[in-house]
Each structure stands twice: as structure tokens, then as C-alpha cells.
Amino acid sequence: MVCIAAFIILALIGIFVAIISIFKPKIGKSYLKALKKAWGCLWKKVRLQKCETGFKEDVKNTLLSRVVIKHPKWTRPLSILIEVLSVVIVIVFIWAILTAIKSLLALWVLGSCNVTKPSACSLGAEVCSIDESEPKNVLEATGRWFTEWGEIFEALPDKFRTYNAADYNFNYISANPGVGADKPLAVDIFDPGCSVCMISYRNQKAAGFFDKYDVHLVPFAIQDADGTYKFKNSEIVVKYMLASEQVRSGLAITLIDHIFTEKNSEGISYQNKFNESYSYEQAVNKLEGWLADAGIDEGGISEIRKIVNYPETTTKMSENRNIIENELKVKGIPTMIYDGVKHTGLWKAE
User: Which pLDDT value is given to residue 78?
Assistant: First the structure.
């Protein structure tokens, strides 16, 4: 292990030696000689051959030469310590390489280098992530590390498949009711509280996405690992959207427009108000006020209120969640399916 650890260390410091050797060539020659010996040892280890003891002893003697003279009794304990540190260096190096490979695979397959918390990956798409609980101890963290590998390999075939939006039986809202039967189908999964979803929605409207496709909007309230909702009032907003769509097709789209495209008299976006300021009661009052503005009388609003509290509405949300998290294996939203491809993250006009 000493010679392998030495090769790792020499390889890591190689860039600094290369710079120094420009001014002091002797250092560069000594470094290359040591690196060549270390590589020879490593290559033998790979082929399951015994490593040369000479290089191992050279490394130890170099590190212990001064100690032997001043503190002879320390030689054996320090020799053991060098062996232990060598094992640690090799393990950490292998772990780092595997983690790098795992992160790159996750980025390619799932759109985020962080499987557990997708939004924490700066290299991934802009998303509102569906996060898993944080490991509570080293044992859980180790288990999660292996579980993430499983998720990546399980999702790997999906990278090469063609997605058909019609294959998923979502409870949805029509973005353009009564129009679009002859247009290609698209599914658009969003959370009313997600700022990335809001920007995507605005981009889609501005680019005419809803005119080009028959878009099925799927309202989805992201839940954290403890069962609470990521955004304060998303659950009740989703329920009102699903219930409104049952009373009158296209009614729910007015609620989406208000939340995603409008601001109050103070210039604050309604999405921000729902996420940060409104209590449950205030959120309900605002939603019902918008329904009244859309021409729904008190009887109609009362009917919507009943549907919101039906167990069937909660069931519809659970059905959507099952498709999103288990069938599609979505790690972040917005997520869209159209033209045979699953797109995750901020939608930008081509």
C-alpha cells in the first residue's frame, strides 16, 4: 500500500513539480524517477504481482531518516503509522474516483450530480428538487451511497427510451381547453410554489408553446422527506386547481395565470405571497376570490370547496405523485414530456 499511496501523492503534486522543474531541472528528474518507480509498483499490484520492496523501503527510509537518528524507539510505531496512512490514502483516493464517476453518471442520467438533493448540484438543470432525507449517521450515509448507485443504474435504460406523453394517466388541467385535439400531446409537471416552474410557464406562453401542443398541465405539490410540503400553500392550491377543473374546463388555468404571471398592488408576485405570507385561510380566500372574478357564483364556489375536501381529490394527488416519483423517476421539476423526450428543468425557447 505504501508504494500505491506514494504514486497517488506523486501524481497529485506532479503539476507543482512541473512548474518548479522549469527553474530547477534536477527536481524534475528526481520526481520522474520516483514516479516511474511508483508506477512500476502500482502496475504490478494491478496484475496481482508482488511489488518491489526496494521502493517501499526507499519511501519509508526517506520519511524516517531523521527520526532514526534522534528517536530510534519511534521508528517502528511510525513505520506502522505510515502503513496505516497509506491504506487510508488509497481508500480515500478510490472513493473519490468512484464518487466522481457516480456524480457524472447521475448528471447524465438524472440531470443532477446530486441524487439525494438535485438542486444542490450547480452543474445540473435549474429545478425545484424532490429531495430525500439526509442520512442520520455514517451507516445510513454509506447505505445511501450504494442506493444512489442503484438508482442511477435503474434509470440508465430510460436515457435511451422514447417517452410517449399519452402513456401516463395523469389527473391534469388542460392548458388550452377545447382546442388542440389535432396537435401533438405534451405533459407539463409543475408546482405552484416553484419559481423555476413560474419562469418556465412564462417562457412557454411567450413562445407559443401552448398553441403548438395540446398541453396537459399536472399540478404537483413537492413533499419533503418528513411529509411536509416544500412550499407553504402548494397543497391547497393544487387541490383547488384540480377541483376547479372538474367544475368547468379551463377554470384552473385562470388560477395558474394569477399565481405565475401577476403581482399584487405592492408589486409582489402572487407566487411569493402564497409561499411566504398567506396563511391557509388567506390562500383559500384569494383562490376563491379569483374564482368569483372568473364568473363562478357562490353555489359554484361551494361545490368546488366540497370537491377540494373529497378524499378522491387527495387520491388524485397521490396518483400523480406515484407516476412522477416512481414511474418517471423525476428528481426535480418542472418536468415536461413532448416530442418523445423527457425534459427536466427550466424551459427555454429554442
Answer: 59
